[in-house]
Amino acid sequence: MIKNSKVVFFDMGNTLLHFHFGKTDDEKDTIGIKYLTEFLKQYNCKIEFDDVKKNFFDVWKKVMPLRKINHTEYEVEYYLNSFLKKYNVYLDLDICIKAMDTFYTEYRNNIWIEENIHRTLESIKEKGYRIGVISNSSLYDEVMINCFEKVQLAKYIDIFTFSYYLKICKPKEQIFEIAMDRMKVSPEEAIMIGDNLKNDIEPAQKVGLTGIWFNRDLTINNTYIKPDNEILKLEDLIELL
User: Pfam families per the record (predicted)?
Assistant: First the structure.
């Protein structure tokens, strides 16, 4: 049993939510670009799919690898409005959020979650713990929270801490410190559960959290990182609390 803990933090992708199920990512992107094109036609009917794909989506996706190098996020609205400039269209932040939420429809519709995840999170809450999410995200917080709403998990989460608006990505330790500050909890009172040893477990342990590795795929740990514990299913966490 983990003593003195009050808050359980989870990673999002490949931990609470699994985005790479159902249709392939390429299929979901293609459908998303179609939805986005129709959304943008409200502002200029001349906007076409091929142009959206080539001059917005492909340009935006090219910066995605930089996230892992610079550990920051890149503003979607910059790339979207740069593309729309030739159409004399400018979208404010709220409209950009709606646009990208529309784009993300198929990802949201194809999310997979563990069979007993609702009961697992309910049990954690019943034990008196608060639950937070600490996750990298290349899209707006609102889009990601809608994904939690889609699978009815948002009601269990007390506070979401995503990288997008903060412009701070894991494995930077600061995002964990911000999450703890938001939850008003000390490192000794917090647990981090995630599937990535480098992004989730190591930085969490460095700032004093208990790091529990969610090893659903039975990956052999050949790294120097030593999690405080390891679980194969999220429901296994209940026995540790």
Answer: HAD_2
pTM of the model: 0.96
Can you read off the two tokens belonging to residue 163?
């990288």
Q: Phi first, then psi: give them for residue 170, nearest 5 degrees.
A: -60, 140
What is the second-level CATH architecture of the domain 7-20+111-240? Answer: 3-Layer(aba) Sandwich (3.40)
Percent of the chain with pLDDT over 90: 98
Q: Which single residue is written with the structure tokens 């808050």?
A: 7
- Is residue 65 reached through a cis peptide bond, with omega within 30 degrees of 0 on the bond before it? no
Q: What amino acid occupies position 153?
A: L
Provide the H-helix boundaries in the chain.
25-40, 49-52, 58-62, 64-70, 76-84, 93-103, 105-109, 117-126, 141-150, 163-166, 173-183, 202-206
Q: How far is CA 222 from the centre of its chain?
A: 26
The answer to whether the beta carbons of residues 98 and 74 sit under 8 Å apart is no
Of 15, 19, 18, nearest in space to 231 by CA: 15
